[in-house]
């Protein structure tokens, strides 16, 4: 399990201060752990990116001002602005080495399936799966070799590689499958026959009525 060091500052003011924090390029968040008082934080948005925009699971070594050591935690939740899609808040969950935790880890498919080479389509239904284990046993990802899969084959949660963790899914849950290529049942309708262009007629000039001619003559 890869570990990332994250330096944070303690946030003393909350609601009003959050707007100023975001304008300064930082993100407000909170660190909480079993039996501890939650600590409001601010972190440089750039330092959060490796934790958010990744396909791996990481343990965070959180450093706070005045502490000589670090707090082991994981990124539990992230909130995004619905318009700008910028990170506006995050939650860090503290870990205890002797206490199991539930997290989601990515499933990585390795290799090109035989069924895909034969024209089939690989459908990756579940990209992440929930597991329960001790912090030290959290895998960065669960790797599955799919080279042997033929058209019609599928991989279920029960056949995922075993480790020092419990997969919290039904064994029948489908992780990936090779499906046959789509078959066009109906031929595409023929293009409608375009009628020949009609001869373009010159627009008729509507003659002036007698009354209009008399009125114009009186003006001259």
Structure, described:
The chain has helices spanning 15-23, 45-52, 114-117, 210-219; strands at 3-7, 9-10, 26-32, 39-44, 59-63, 71-80, 87-94, 101-110, 121-124, 128-133, 142-145, 154-156, 166-167, 174-179. With 220 residues, the protein is mainly beta. It is built from four helices and 14 strands. The chain has two domains: 3-95, Ribosomal Protein L25, Chain P; 102-179, RNA Polymerase Alpha Subunit, Chain A, domain 2, CATH 2.170.120.20. Strands 1-5-6-7-3-4-2 form a seven-stranded mixed β-sheet, with helices on both faces.
Helices and strands, with pairings:
Blueprint lengths: L2 E5 L1 E2 L4 H9 L2 E7 L6 E6 H8 L6 E5 L7 E10 L6 E8 L6 E10 L3 H4 L3 E4 L3 E6 L8 E4 L8 E3 L9 E2 L6 E6 L30 H10 L1
Which key terms come to mind for this protein?
220 residues; mainly beta; Ribosomal Protein L25, Chain P; RNA Polymerase Alpha Subunit, Chain A, domain 2; 2 domains; 7-stranded mixed sheet; 4-stranded mixed sheet; 14 strands
Sheet having the most strands: 7 strands, mixed
Q: Could you name the ranges where pLDDT drops below 50 across 5 or more consecutive residues?
A: 183-188, 203-214
- Multimeric state: single chain
Gap between N and C termini: 99 Å
The overall pLDDT, averaged over residues, is 84
User: What CATH architecture of the largest domain would you give?
Assistant: Beta Barrel
Bin the strand percentage: 35-45%
Total helix count? 4
Please bin the fraction of helical residues. Answer: 10-25%
Q: Gyration radius, to the nearest Å?
A: 32 Å
- Helix and strand run: EEHEEHEEEEHEEEEEEH
Give the spatial strand order of the biggest sheet.
1-5-6-7-3-4-2
Q: Could you tell me the number of beta strands?
A: 14
* Structural classification: mainly beta
CATH topology of the largest domain: Ribosomal Protein L25, Chain P
Question: What is the number of independent domains?
Answer: 2
Q: What's the overall geometry?
A: elongated
CATH H-level homologous superfamily name of the largest domain: Ribosomal Protein L25, Chain P
Which CATH class of the largest domain applies here?
A: Mainly Beta
């Amino acid at each position: 399990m890869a570990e990332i060091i994250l330096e944070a500052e303690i946030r003393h003011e909350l609601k009003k201060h959050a707007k100023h924090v975001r304008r300064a390029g930082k993100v407000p968040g909170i660190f909480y752990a079993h039996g501890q008082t939650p600590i409001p934080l601010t972190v440089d948005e750039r330092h959060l990116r490796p934790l958010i925009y990744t396909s791996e699971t990481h343990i965070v070594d959180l450093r706070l001002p005045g502490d000589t050591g670090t707090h082991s935690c994981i990124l539990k939740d992230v909130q995004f602005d619905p318009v700008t899609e910028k990170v506006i808040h995050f939650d860090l969950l503290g870990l205890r080495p002797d206490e199991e935790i539930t997290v989601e880890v990515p499933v990585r498919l390795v290799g090109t399936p035989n069924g895909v080479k034969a024209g089939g389509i690989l459908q990756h239904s579940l990209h992440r799966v929930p597991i329960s284990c001790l912090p030290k046993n959290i895998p960065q990802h669960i790797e599955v070799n799919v080279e042997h899969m033929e058209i019609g084959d599928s991989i279920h949660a029960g056949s995922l590689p075993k480790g020092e963790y419990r997969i919290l899914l039904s064994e029948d849950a489908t992780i990936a499958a090779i499906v046959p290529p789509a078959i066009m049942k109906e031929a595409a309708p023929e293009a409608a026959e375009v009628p020949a262009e009609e001869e373009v007629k010159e627009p008729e000039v509507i003659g002036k009525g007698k009354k209009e001619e008399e009125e114009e003559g009186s003006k001259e």
